[in-house]
Amino acid sequence: MAVQNNTTPSAKRRFQSPFDVATPPGAEGWQELYPYYAHISEERRSVEEQKLWYFDGMHNPEPLYPFDTIMTENWWVAASQMTTKVWPIPVAMGIDQRIINGYLYVSPNSIDDPAEVARRAELFNERAGHYYENWDTIYAEWKKKANGCIERLKQIQFKPLPEFEPEENVYGHRGIYSSHDLLSSYNRLIENLFEMGSYHFEMLNLGYGAYLTFREFCQQAFPGISDQTITDMVSGIDILLFRPDDELRKLAARAIELSVDGALLDNLDPAAALKAVGALPSGAAWLAAYEESRNPWFWFSTGVGYTHSDAVWMTDPRLPFTALRSYIEALRRGEDIRRPLDKIIETRTRVTQEYRELLPTEDDREAFDGLVKLARTVYPYVEDHNFFVEHWHHSLFWEKVRELGEVFVAHKFFDDKEDIFYLHRHEVYDALYDMIIGWAVGTPPRGEVYWRPIIQKRRKIRDALAKWSPPPALGVPPESITEPLTIMLWGITQETIQQWLGGDTAEDGVLRGIAASAGKVTGRARLITESEQLYDVQDGEILVCRITAPSWAPVFQRISAAVSDVGGMMAHTAIISREYGLPAVVGTGFATVNVSTGDLIEVDGTEGTVRVLEKAVQA
Predict the structure, then answer these.
(1) Quick one: which of 65, 182, 194, 360 is 20 to 30 A from 15 by CA?
(2) Is residue 571 part of a domain?
(3) Mean pLDDT within 552-577
(4) Structural domain count of the chain
(5) Do residues 483 and 108 make contact, with C-beta atoms less than 8 angstroms apart?
(6) pTM, to two decimals
């Protein structure tokens, strides 16, 4: 079997070698924050230097906290094993990872041996065919598995070790005690995360694969057809990720119906707003509706769920309350706050029929019908799984880790529960055992003096890493890219790579990316580099960011277009923009470098261009 490591010895241009990347000042020794297997290393130089490594700013836009690497390591195996061992996809292998200056870089592998491609294709067709033919049934089973995993996560608890073992453990002849419970709870927490990680990718690669197959058919049958036109044929499907936003719309309408809207508008602080509503005659009814909406729909991260630092609606409801007030104000003005679903479905029906009629034979039309039906069938899962996994499950997971952090604070290992995120998961196990030893024998554990200086040092290193700007890619450009997630989610194509090679400046004031959602808009830019800045968005502005998160959906009711540095046709920015009928350009690479808040820009979501018309005067 010949596996391509994305080499192209004849390439005339290449990115900086990952081995030549300098350490930012103040970040010396950053390697100790991460496990050895995540590093670029001299032992693997002959392979690593000849691969393309691109920055995964979609999932980890900031330098990784040591504990948060559990999420990257999770999908490192889970996503790759589906491509290599479970299906397997004929021309694609797994996606490799390395951490460079604290930032995650990834690299897809591919296969070029025709015999091996054919062997894998036979196996893939048989296994994937089973899933495609039984998709709805398997998806229903998947939801049960995901819900079961979440329920078991909820049951995990972390408590400080007691002074004396509880009587029920003694007189119940249990034989295992609090020390065992603490360790086993931590083991179950980690195992639960990896279990959900496996569910995450059980059907995802197949979802992208079905869409890619439909896309390839259209590109061959209709030369010159745009990706935007192809996505028009599968858009307009009601997906679960819009449910939290829909709940806010319902709550806004209910607030007006119950005459509690004034209290919600007059109190910007969510806690104060809830208190004010509760004091009103109809307040109890609205609060009941609010509680019903919260669980589970407020388990919604303002990021993509892969980092503990992203705020979650459930514990930080400022973003949903901001959206709620916006919806109330719109309803008071008599506006329709529903998504333009009817218009999107009309476009889907019309475009599908127009292109179907262009096909020359009945066999072609039957093939087209089958592929578009399959793409529409798998499309909801591609997005819906995110709510179960990255949002509901992962947000709960981070809260459980904080609960464990409180145990370390109680035992004088840490000053703050958030300190736990400066330890890798393997180190946490060692620290727990140190704690248990001290509890069992009565000698102060070394952890009481060992971890604080390490955490302090690592905090300074990570702060220094956060000041570094990671380049979009390192290493050698590949001859071809075939891995489905790389193309559809990250939007990495040969064209993308050529744009990156051109540098981080906009030629003639124009940035080029992927035309993700049709339309042309001119407006003032609002640069968002962290979720806290979402509260500053003004009506009609154009959102410019590295990548959006599904929980930003309420903001799309206010903006006129969206632009992102990273992402492909199936990235959240692209999907949300299409479903809200907004122009969008994704995968620009350098929009956040070239565009500032207040700049007058033109976004052409049909051509995939972003033009800077006028730079804002900086105060």
Answers:
(1) 65
(2) yes
(3) 83
(4) 1
(5) yes
(6) 0.88
